[in-house]
Amino acid sequence: MTPSYPDEAMPDEALYTLLCKYLLHEADAEERAWVEAWVTEDPGNVALLGSLRKVLDTATSNERLVEAKTNDAWLQLSGKIEEKPVLIAVKPAARFTWLKIAAVLLIALGAGWWFLIGKRPQQVYAGPTNATLADGSNIRLSASSRLEVARGFNQRNRKVSLTGTATFDVSGSAENPFVITLGHTDVKVLGTHFMINYEPGTAVLKVHVTTGKVMVIDHDKADSVVLTDGMLLQKDNARPAFRIAAHVTDMTKKSLSFRDTPLEEVLHTITEVYDIKVEVVNMDLLKLPVRADFTGESADDVIRSLALMLSADYEKINDRQYKLK
């Protein structure tokens, strides 16, 4: 009989031992029921059980040929056996005991069978939910989002992977940084409060830093950028390069805050957040300071407000293009 582990993963040694017993038909009814329930919890569990089955099949079916040792004493006793070496097929016992198999597997794992557990996460969270990790980090997952916590979290690493949208509150550690994997992009946290939206199907990535500092690393393009307070990074299939905007206080609400910010910088943020183009006819406008807050306004409202503050005129060319003059 095996103990249950309702709130944490079973230790590796106990798990492998139990799975070996199950595959060798030496588990009792309660152990079999536990394994069969465990298999349904995650597709990765099915893959792990299949990998173990292949290893066990190989271990229990091998035959080896051993050269028999002949000597004078044996010849004197047998008298009828020829002196040439004899190859004798020596089969292992019909089945190793599950304990020996488990020991062999653990040794093999140490020598390179790490792929059996591979990238199986230590914990998985599905949104909507709030999660507090072992290092004290707090993550708020939105609906249809998934967070996977790497094995050895807060011991060997502080790595997680994310699909969907989540808000993070993370403590910094130069010795053991918090790393979020988003496909082929990593976000390395240097201590901060921030939000991420990652949709792998369309390669949409948004990272917004409320306070603190993070580094975003694109391994495919060997590119990286450091984001600080109020900065927003975006990219997608249509525009795969990093696009950066500042003065963003809330990514989801499109909250922007400008304090005597030159219009040129304001327009850079607005064009990135609203995905529009703004042509400035009078270049002197670009140096004028802007003091304003916007939350949830449409692009039309924002351009109209800017024109009014700067005593300028504006023209809407189409749904995504404006002209200030």
UniProtKB/TrEMBL annotation:
Residues 131-214 form the FecR protein domain. It holds the Pfam family FecR_C. Residues 256-322 form the Protein FecR C-terminal domain. The chain crosses the membrane at residues 97-116. GO terms for molecular function: sigma factor antagonist activity. The keyword NADP does not apply. Keywords: Membrane, Transmembrane, Transmembrane helix. PANTHER family: PERIPLASMIC SIGNAL SENSOR AND SIGMA FACTOR ACTIVATOR FECR-RELATED, PROTEIN FECR. This is DUF4974 domain-containing protein. It comes from Chitinophaga eiseniae.
